[in-house]
## 1
Amino acid sequence: MRGARNRRVAGTALLATGLTLGLTSTSTAAPPQPVDAYTADFPAGLACDFPLRVSASSGRIVVKKFVDTSGHVVRVLQVGTGVAYTYTNLSTGKSVTTAAGGSAMRTVIQDGVETVTASGHNALILFPTDVPEGPSTTVYHGRVVYTIDLASGVFTLLSTSGSSVDMCAALA
């Protein structure tokens, strides 16, 4: 996984919308692109109280970025399918795999903050520096809204709806 967001969000899609004036699309509707399989390991105390491995299967994703008149990306839309995740407690070897499901995320970027609205099948990993304080790894099937302060990298969970599974508890 690449970057702070990818190390924390195990979702298949990122969808960003907004009604800001002066936006233009940087591309037309593109065909789905492959998402490579990956594995990320988190030390104890970061994503769960034990060392956690998150492995993702390959899938497909459609990404569309929108820029303002100055050329800055202000919205990102991503929709994806087909990515299954396996969460493993590296201390015990216990694993849980979530089925491949679709998800969508919309991200609005403004004043150094990304506001993300995720729907469908997504997971959010919160570190001890986040709000609420982690470590936590939660799989959601529904809607999750959070912000990311781009300067500090702090995630702030704003709201959730639908069902959720505490993966740290499930793997303990």
## 2
Amino acid sequence: MFRSISAVMAVLSVSFVTAFAQGGAKPTDPQIAHIAYTAGQIDIEAGKQAIKMSKNKEVIAFAENMVKDHTAVNKLALDLCKKLGVTPEDNDTSKSLSKAAAAKQAELAKLTGAAFDKAYMDNEVAYHKTVNGALDTLLIPSSSNAELKALLQQGLTIFKGHQQHAEHTASMIK
């Protein structure tokens, strides 16, 4: 199972960092908006899956927090796009994220009980590390709009807290 999580995280890391490395192109603000929204939506769906499948109150509480926080940040992102007249642009990175997330969700759907809880929480730790790294090293520095950059920085602060919460909750699962 660890290999599977590692493989998905490797795909996500490569997707974030190398999708725009070809030709030295940075992601545009519409692409960044779509990547950020997609990453949030992935965690919303993962949280909903955990709420349905877990019986562990700490895991469920964590998942509920993910759904609430990522829904709120995604709403802020959509509101900002509307205000700026920007249409988020689908791209290879957001497509790759969605594909990897669908595979992970299918894998998790086959698990039950503590095995599900452990795999979900381990994935949340790895996912937040990857997304936080991409925000910090690629998405925020590449953003040219000050309001988008500020929203991404606000999101990064929240998501670093999610990573710590995920690490704490994962450490409690046996």
## 3
Amino acid sequence: MLDLTLAVVHHLTIFALFGVLVAELILLRPGMTAGDLAKVGKIDLWYGILAGLILVFGFSRAVFAAKGWAYYSHNAFFWVKIGTFVLIGLLSVPPTIAYIRWRRAGVEPTALQVASVRRLLWWETALFAALPACAAAMARGYGAF
């Protein structure tokens, strides 16, 4: 039952994180008001919370669930998945910093600033597609070394 619970919670948090990322893309646009910036900031906070939960549940799953750490730690797709998730996390830092700066400054971001942050969000979204591909390969035993 632990394996099932961890798998379900892990997958739900991943779907939620993707939803939050899409929400940021939708809300981030030129002409944002202070209220819009506050919304994006709150959504971005959830992005960080969900990312942390994904790591907690994902590694709990890898260590305590049915297949165990020996299975995951010796799989190239597992490490590619972790590396991709870390890269997505690193790409999420500049947008977070931008949201904080914009709110503190109390000024509307320029169209160029918005475009720059949106470009990073699109990269995160594109890289996100690699996560389920790696998970599917890993679950089927590909990448074992």
## 4
Amino acid sequence: MYANNKMVRFLPLCLITILATHSSLVMAWGQTGHRVTGEIAEMYLDTKTRAKINALYPNKSLAEISTHADEMRSNPAEFWQKTSTPWHWVTVPQGSDYSVDKHAPSNGDAVTALNQFTATLKNVQASDDEKRLALHFIVHIIGDLHQPLHAGNGTDKGGNDVKVEFFWEDSNLHRVWDSGIIDSKKLSYTEWSKWLSQKITPEMADNWRNADPKVWIKESILLRDGVYPLKTKLSWEYSYQHLPAVKQRLQQAGVRIATYLNEVM
């Protein structure tokens, strides 16, 4: 009986560890990148939107809630392990334009989830808990769609199957874009946010104020086709080549999170 009880206590920890490892395959930007997009977004919220967000979360920032949708993917509940799994990306084969009808799986993708959660935020009958979940996902999904490999081509799991070395450690192309390039700079998310936000001019912000996810996806696809390396050992040269795009996508995502929330809340 003792051995069986011990096994019962042990299994959830094993399951959570396995699930956490599996979930890491598709986390866009990593925690630092998502927090940067949330922190930048705070700077562009209008008064009405800020008040509504504060009513839902009086003691949390968008940076803090931006990672929730990834963190919960270690939760063994069916919603987090099956239902919401494909809501972090879209698939757009080479040479195609994005279409929900053609490319979204049966339980949806990032765009269908974004539409669903937007409807929840607009629904006056939705509970505060439902709106909190919706806000979590909206902030997170907009960040996801600005990572080029979250508009995958359908052949390599958004670069997860492309094995590389990044600064002499085994990795894959997706992980390099999620966190490798960002974390190699050894900056906190607040340092990233401060430095990147200071470089966003009013003209840049105006040009980026777009709430159409198809526009963001098209931009990601244009970048995606150029991120695949010609060699498998990546370090300073690859980081130098792609760091400007990483920075701009974080900036754009931040501005667009605020733009989107200002429109729908």
